[in-house]
Amino acid sequence: MIRIPESELILNRDGSIYHLSLHPEQVADTIITVGDPKRVSMISDHFDRLDASVRKREFITHTGEIGGKRLTVISTGIGPDNIDIAINELDALVNIDLENREPKSNPVSLRFIRMGTSGSLHPEIPVDSLVVSAYGIGLDNVMQFYPWSPSAEEKELEDLAQGLVDVDKVHPYAVKASDVLLESLRKDETLGITLTSPGFYGPQGRSLRIKNPDAERMIELLPSFSYKGIPLTNIEMETSAIYGLSRLLGHQALSFNAILANRITREFSPNPKKAVSNMIETVLRRLI
Fold it and tell me: Could you say which residues of the chain have pLDDT below 50?
């Protein structure tokens, strides 16, 4: 087996993985990803026991136990570029022998549960509600650097999504959520298609001092998009990259998003912390 060189698999002096500063024993099989570092403690405060607490840069990781189930929660920061780091390094921790620098012969399949925040694209999906992503459509370029091969269903959705953005250099890709996680964790929440953007302002159709008519028209177009009766419900910055990388590495992934803004009615949650807390409590109950 080919040894992975030091320049590709970078370890810290203590043997931990480069960006996350984690050791293999500090990672559970079920991993909750959040963007906001402060949200990590909001989740781990529910744990019965905290076994590991590690911080490096925007990556804060808490691993512990709740109701007899071991969980890891990690803040990835914002954006698909950070997801690329987090998913690859978490996979390396469980599926690569770090001492010998060789992939393990029997890879472990992790479960990634995203607890994020997002903006709704429909007036009937109000702020403070919860959306579960059946599919992610990515406007980022992360998966272009990997041997991504969509299923027939994903390719059909991908082709439909080509008309969503009037930018020649943007090529949307589509990824389906884990059917197993979707069936076991989703109850009566809104089921939707989540659009993952590489930025928060222009790429999501927001204009402050830089006016972009094409971006503004995109927001007007998005609410009319649907696939197999599932509407394009929300726009955020992580889901499609989590879904795509998880698929390639043999993991399962599902994304929950607390709706803090409604892009159509121009509303924002009067109590975003409460909306996030409700999402955390709901998802944790189902995980245990």
Answer: none
